[in-house]
């Protein structure tokens, strides 16, 4: 039996919610923007990496985050079995993992979250779901923190649960699903260069002014309120990032010009996806989304690895294929 799980790309921060808001996205043309991990029984543990971006990952399988996911999962299984103090519980099996690395690393599309979520969810499905969604999300956060150097759920939570997720400062909850704007298109443009999340976090100040703290709170609160009322004008009319975008713009060649162009073309909002360099533009007009995609293809991509996808919110999250 082989279990394969797909985990979708996501927009971390969604501009107004640094580290606390994330949205899963899927291309409207039906292509899979995300990673796939397959698990099958084997004589010994092994990891094979295939896919367009396989060559961007460490050549040693034990340096791959998917391998670390397997170790964490096995350790959690062993602890669960010990806690049950009985013959019940799962016996750890040797497995062959295959990571189909479809996502570019350091893209701002939640690439590491895609690998982590797909790997852990595939293992959980392989063992017939020994862990609850809450336990799974905690493990996913732990793995994401290992890669990016800080614990933030704004990619793993939407990647796992789908939709628009708001992080809650209660470890028993972690995340809540917000109503997303399902008639909106999110045009995602990955320029083909790499920006590490670690590096993009290091450019941020350690302290912010009182004015920025107030602006952040008010903007995020206004956005959440607008989601519940499905008020696009309020949601995107005040779509401003005071915490990260001003400091990260300089890491993204052409971002300022692209944002100005797309806003003047009528997009509702434009922002940095996660820590960049992917840019996203929001519109509820399909023709405008297609035009924005063409413009970005011609003006924002800087290497042959770049791509543009017209997406909508992915409300399903990680799923078995
Ligand atoms: N919230 C994280 C950051 C997302 O902006 O650093 C990383 O993709």
Describe this structure in words.
The protein has ten helices and 13 strands. The protein is of the alpha+beta class and 321 residues long. It folds into two domains: 2-178, Ribosomal Protein S5, domain 2, CATH 3.30.230; 185-313, 2-Layer Sandwich (Alpha-Beta Plaits), CATH 3.30.70. Strands 2, 3, 7, 8, 9, 10, 11 and 12 form an eight-stranded antiparallel β-sheet that branches. Strand 7 and strand 8 form a beta hairpin. The protein is globular, with a radius of gyration of 20 Å. The two termini are 13 Å apart. The site of L-homoserine has 14 residues, from helix 5.
- Could you tell me which ligands this complex binds, including any ions or cofactors? L-homoserine
CATH class of the largest domain: Alpha Beta
Structural class: alpha+beta
Number of domains: 2
Question: Helix segment count?
Answer: 10
SSE pattern: EEEEEHEHHHEEEHHHHHEEHEE
What is the strand and helix layout of this fold?
Layout: E1 2-8, E2 10-12, E3 21-27, E4 34-41, E5 46-50, H1 65-84, E6 95-100, H2 111-126, H3 133-148, H4 156-161, E7 164-167, E8 175-178, E9 185-190, H5 197-202, H6 210-229, H7 232-237, H8 245-248, H9 255-264, E10 269-272, E11 279-283, H10 286-299, E12 307-313, E13 319-320
Parallel strand pairs: 5-6
Antiparallel strand pairs: 1-4, 1-13, 2-3, 3-7, 3-12, 4-6, 7-8, 9-11, 9-12, 10-11
Helix pairs in contact: 1-2, 1-3, 2-3
This protein binds L-homoserine.
